[in-house]
Each structure stands twice: as structure tokens, then as C-alpha cells.
Amino acid sequence: MLRINSILMLLNKVIFMNNDFNQDYLMHYGVLGMKWGVRRYQNKDGTRTSLGKKRATKSDFQVKSKNGDILSVKLDKESGISKLLSKISNKHAKQVDDFSSYTTYANGKSVGTLQLNRNSISELNIVWIDTKSTEKGKGYASAVLNGVLKNAKVDGYSNVTLEVPGISPDAAHIYEKAGFKYVGQLTNPDEDFVWGGLKAMRKDLQ
Questions:
Q1: CA of 3: how far to CAs of 10, 147, 185, 187, in Å?
Q2: Which letter, b or e, does each residue of 61-78 get, where b requires 16 or more Cβ atoms within 10 Å of its Cβ?
Q3: In this structure, what DSSP letter does residue 42 have?
């Protein structure tokens, strides 16, 4: 069955994202992609607590594309409407807590988007990775995907999941190259006139 919550969160991207989570989180980028100072939300063995995973997932990061471009993947800010809804709806507050929406920049210009959802303490779901049509072919989507996988492993997730549409064979190829495997058919291609059939994919990290 198609994850309804993922679709709803995708459609409601504009009202999501928390910009207050960083107040207790120290990050320093001295080396590309390397992070220091995350102690308050770590276990004694160095792994992140459940709250630590949430905060680590909701952080900006940088990656390098195949052509050498440095991509800055920056967390989108939560709108005032979303903040208000979180105060009156526990369900909405939890969705905002688990969901992260980003904009990818190259040379100061927006080139794509990324959306993640923390399905559980062990599973991170990639809701959406997109590159603008004018920027395709530069390896941006693959670079962002690899960055997500690297961070997810550091954050202690056991697996990363996603749903790939039948109308996007190029996306499926990128995921397969990254080590994702098909685990199930979510919608029938003959009946799904929007996505051409959705397949579930998963990559085990541990």
C-alpha cells in the first residue's frame, strides 16, 4: 500500500520545516562533510540517541558532484502557518518533527530539492530528490543521494528506503547503482496513471 503520509507531506512541503532545532546543536564544517561537537545527543558509545538522530537528520550538509561542483543542501525554514498548526495539532507537530525539506544550491543558485522522512528510529525514507531540468546530467542528484546515505549511516540508521515511480527509469538506475534493492510493488503500473507504478526500494546500512 502506498504511504499516504509521505504523499501528504510531499504536497504540504511549503508549510513544513523547523528552523529552531539548531539552537542546541553545534556544527563546524572544517572538512567537507565532517561534523564535530554533537555530544549532547550521543550515547556513551558515540552513537546518537533517538533525539540526536532527529536533530542530525535536520541539518545542512555539503557534497561534491562528479564535475567538482560543491553543493550546499540547506534545510528549508518552517512557515508561520506550520508553527501555528503544530501548537494546536500533535499529529502535525509529529509530522514536522520527522519530516525534513531541503533546497540544493550550486554556486549560490537553486538547482534542486530533497525531502526526507524519519519513518522510525532505524529507518530513514527519501521522499523526494529532484534536480531542475536545466541542471540535469551534472551528477547533482547522485551526489546528494550519496550524502544522504553517508549521513544516515553516521546517524545510526539501519536502512534507507524510498519509492521509485515507473515513469522515472533514470532515477531507478541511480538508486540501483547506489545499492538499493527492490523489496515490493506498491501500485500496479496498469492502474497507476500518475506514477506508472510505484516500487519500494531499500538499502541496508548496517
A1: 11, 24, 12, 11
A2: bbbebeeebebbbbbbeb
A3: B
Which amino acid is present at 156?
A: G
Number of CB atoms found within 10 A of residue 203's CB: 18
Average pLDDT over the chain reads: 79
Tens of pLDDT along 158-174? 999 999 998 888 888 88
Three cell numbers written together for 199: 516500487
- Cell, residue 91: 499529529
**For the structural domain made of 4-204, what CATH number should be given?**
3.40.630.30
Classify residue 45 as exposed, middle or buried by CB count within 10 Å of its CB (0-12, 13-18, 19+). exposed
pTM value? Answer: 0.72
Cα within 13 Å of Cα(49), Cβ side? 9
